Amino acid sequence: MGQLVSINVGLPRDIVWQGKTVHTGIWKTPVEGPRMARRLNLDGDGQGDLNGHGGERRAVFVYQLDSYRYWQSHLGRNDFVHGQFGENFTVDGLSDAEVCIGDRYRIGGALFEVTQPRVTCYRLGIRMNEPEMAALVVKHGRPGFYFRVLEEGEVEAGNEITRVASGPERMSVSEIDALLYKPGHPRDQLERALRIPMLSVGWRRSLEALLTQERDGGTTTGNAGLNAAAGPPPAWPGFRPLRVSRKVRESSNVISLRLDPVDGRPIAPALPGQFVVLRLEPASAPALMRSYSLSGEPGASYYRVSVKQETNGAAGAFIDDKLQVGDVVQASAARGNFTLRSGDTPVVLLSAGIGVTPVLAMLHVLAAEASTREIWWLHGTRNGREHPFAEETRGLLNSLPNHHSYVCYSSPDSGDQLNVDFDAVGRLNTQALQNHDLPRNGDFYICGPSTFMSELTASLAAMGVAPTQIHTELFGAGPSITPGIAASPRQQPHLPTGAAGTGPMVSFARSGLDVRWGSSFQSLLELAEACDVPVRFACRTGVCHTCESGLVAGTVGYRPDPVDAPAEGNVLICCAQPSGDIVIDL
What we know:
Elements: E1 2-9, E2 13-17, E3 20-24, E4 29-31, E5 35-37, E6 60-64, H1 65-75, E7 89-92, E8 104-107, E9 110-117, H2 122-128, H3 133-140, E10 145-151, E11 153-155, E12 160-165, H4 173-181, H5 187-194, H6 201-215, E13 240-251, E14 254-261, E15 275-280, E16 288-293, E17 303-308, H7 314-321, E18 328-331, E19 347-352, H8 356-368, E20 375-381, H9 390-398, E21 403-409, E22 424-425, H10 430-434, E23 443-447, H11 450-462, E24 470-473, E25 505-508, E26 513-516, H12 524-530, H13 546-549, E27 556-558, E28 571-573, E29 582-584
Parallel strand pairs: 6-7, 19-20, 19-23, 20-21, 21-22, 23-24, 25-29
Antiparallel strand pairs: 1-4, 1-7, 1-12, 2-3, 5-11, 6-10, 8-9, 8-12, 9-10, 13-14, 13-18, 14-17, 15-16, 15-18, 25-26, 27-28
Helix pairs in contact: 5-6
C-alpha cells in the first residue's frame, strides 16, 4: 500500500529568529539502518514544544512524497531534503485523502494507529524560510498526520507499509482537517467524526464545540472549534457609555458600581466570571483604563463591578472620591473565558481579597438555578472590615442544599467572631486545602493575587486534580506565551515610538493602554509588540482564520490549533488591521 522512504529524527535546539531565541525540534535529519519506534518517540527524536507536538497520540509525524512534489511546484523550489517538513516518516503513498482516522498500519516490527491531522505552527515557516507556510498548508489542505505507537518495534527505510485495520466511520485525514478549518460544518459529519474513539482529545473538543454551535442554530458567530475556550464574542466592539446608577460601599476598601446603559438599549447578559473594561476620564488627568470582573446577578439588565481601593491606585481613588451617581463611564462589553462550566460535577470556588468578584458572580448563577451540585466556597481576607459581600455570600450559600463554606482571616480584629464571621485564623493556602476533603473530580475556580493562584494551582495538581479542571483568572496583563520562544526581560507596556497614529483607537485592556492605529503598522500583532504588550499567544503565521471565524478584521480571536493541553487564556491577535475602535484582552 505504501513504502517508508526515510526515517528522520532530531533533538530540539535553539535558533535565532527575528531577534528572538526559539527552542524547536522542527529540524529532522534522515538516519540509516533500523530505528526503534517507542510509545512517545522514535529513538533519537524529540520535540521542543510538548503542548503542540509530541506525546503518545502525536508520537510520529508522517508526510508524503506527493506533497513534496506539490510544494516544489507551488513554491518553485528544488532544494528539499527528507525531513524538510519536520516529519519523522517520509512515505510514498498514504495520502491525506486516503488515510482515515483510526486506520492501523504495520511497518517493520511496529504497529501504528492514525490519530489526527497535523496542526502546523509558525516553526515550519522558519524551517522552510517561508513565513506564510503554516497558512499555506491549511489553505491547500496538505497537513500530513500523526501516528501513535500501539506496538513498539524496529522500523527501517524501505519497509513496506501495510494497512491491517480500517478506522471506524472511514473519515479521512483530509475530511477531518476540512471539517474544522474550512467553511461549512455539517452536523451529520461532526457527529460522524465524534463517533471515532481514536480521534485525539484536542480535536474532539474542537469538533464538539462546533456541534454545539450547530445545535444552537449558529446563534454565536465565528468558528467555535477554533475559539472553544473563549466563550461568545463581545456583544459590541470598542466602548459604550454607561451611567453610574448606584454606588455602594461593600467593605472598608471595596466599592460597587451599578452601571446602566445611557441609551436604554439592553445589555447582553454576561457569563458568570467575565469582566469588562472601563475607561475613566478624570477632569484634570489622562484617561484611565482598567478591567474589572463583574460581580452581579446573571442575566441582569445592568453591569455591577466592584473595585478595591489600592494604595496609590489612581483608578480606585477616582472612583472613591470623584465618581458620582449620574456620571457616565465608557465600558466594553463583557468578555473573558474564566467562566462557570455547566454540568453536575462539584464546584470549588477559591478566592482571596478582591479576587472574590468573579467567583461571586458564579455563586449568584448557582443560587439562581437552585443548583444541587456540591459547592465549596473558600475565601481568604484580612479581617471583617476588609471582607466584602459577607452577608450577600452567606445568603446565597444558605439557599443551596449541598454547600460548604470556609473563610480565613489572616489578621482578625478584636470584634471579629470565630465560627460566626470566619472559620480560621490564617491564610487560604496549601495546608488549608489539605485540611478539607475537597472533591478531586470537581471544577476548581481560583482568583486572587498571582502568588495565591500559583500556590493553590500547584497544590491541587499535587492532590491529583487534573489540569483541565483547574481554572484561574489573572488581574492585569499576563506574561507572554509564545510557544518555543525563550523568555526575555519584560518591559512595561508603553506607547509606540514615533508620531501618534490617527486611526481607530486600539485599547489593550489588561495593559491599560490606549493607542491610535497608525499606517506604519501592518497588523495588530506588530502594534502590540511595538508597545511591549504581553502577547499570550500570537498568530505569527497568518493562520488566524479571520474570515472563517467570523471575526471583524482586527478583533481578537483565540488559538487556532486544537491541542490537548488546556488553551484557557491563550489569546491571539489576528493579523488584520482594525476597521474601528476595538478592545483587546491583553
